[in-house]
Write a structure and sequence with these properties.
The structure holds 2 protein chains of 2 kinds. Chain A is mostly helical. Chain A is built from 2 helices and no strands. By secondary structure, chain B is mainly alpha-helical. Chain B has helices at residues 2-10, 13-29, 37-58, 82-93, 97-107, 113-120, 124-144. In chain B, α1 runs parallel beside α3 (37-58) and α5 crosses α6. At the A-B interface, α1 and α2 of A face α1, α2, α4, α5 and α7 of B.
């Protein structure tokens, strides 16, 4: 390191901010916390509600599908039973 | 470190404090992402560099540094001479933003070129070029003012 670089190191020594800087930053951070924390909670609550709603809707949708499938199965079974009953009745006669 | 980088780069105490406050509040918002004290140090340095450059760009004019206003040392002074120190700070303040930040990080933070490249997010070759050209320019300007090698 030559003389100029030594001078540069000396000239660019670290500087401190004015007194009270830390207190101002801490105050601003506290204010920031008050502003940002409820938003975070609102966002988290909204996410929970959306997920819960989506889960409920999915379960309802699956329930409807199952109900329709059950009704279809019962109609098919009912039709088959009718045909079997008619065949049995025909055989007896 | 944060205030000092902003101060030497911007040459404006009030603006440097604004930048430093902004950087610390940003850290406060992102505390969850900080993994270790070393990570926090690197993070602060990077953000201080970015915010200082942003602040300089927002400022419509260059820092009010007139080389004619700086008193000229008559002879080569001893290391750490306050007048030469002030002259050097003002000469650095006249450099374009890239070379200026590279010089601040090199001689204030004592970072090597690869660390500067990472902090400034620029290629290593560019950092080396910024430092070499800035040193050459400073030597030339000092020589013109009668300040030379011992």
């Amino acid at each position: 390191m030559d003389w100029l670089e030594e001078e540069l190191k000396s000239a660019l020594n670290r500087k401190e901010p004015s007194p009270g800087f830390e207190a101002r930053v801490a105050g601003a951070a506290r204010h920031q916390k008050v502003v940002t924390m409820p938003r975070r909670w609102v966002a988290a609550a909204a996410a929970v509600i959306v997920l819960a709603g989506a889960g409920e809707a999915y379960r309802w949708h699956r329930g409807q599908e199952t109900k329709e499938q059950l009704m279809l199965a019962m109609r098919i079974t009912g039709g088959k039973l009718n045909r079997v009953q008619m065949q049995v009745s025909g055989t007896r006669q | 470190m944060v205030f000092s980088v902003a101060y030497h780069f911007l040459h404006d105490r009030d603006l440097a404090e604004e930048v430093a406050q902004d950087v610390f509040l940003s850290l406060h918002r992102n505390l969850a992402a900080v993994e270790s004290p070393a990570h926090a140090g690197n993070w602060l340095r990077k953000v201080a560099v970015q915010r200082s450059i942003d602040a300089a760009r927002r400022r419509t004019r260059r820092p009010q540094v007139s080389l004619e206003e700086v008193a000229e040392p008559a002879t080569r002074p001893a290391t750490g001479d306050p007048m030469l120190g002030e002259l050097l700070r003002k000469l650095i303040a006249t450099l374009p933003e890239g070379p200026r930040m590279a010089m601040v990080l090199r001689y204030q933070e004592d970072l090597d070129p690869s660390e500067i490249a990472e902090a400034m997010a620029i290629p290593l070759g560019t950092v080396k070029s910024h430092i070499q050209r800035s040193l050459a320019l400073l030597r030339e300007k000092l020589a013109r003012r009668g300040v030379g090698e011992r």
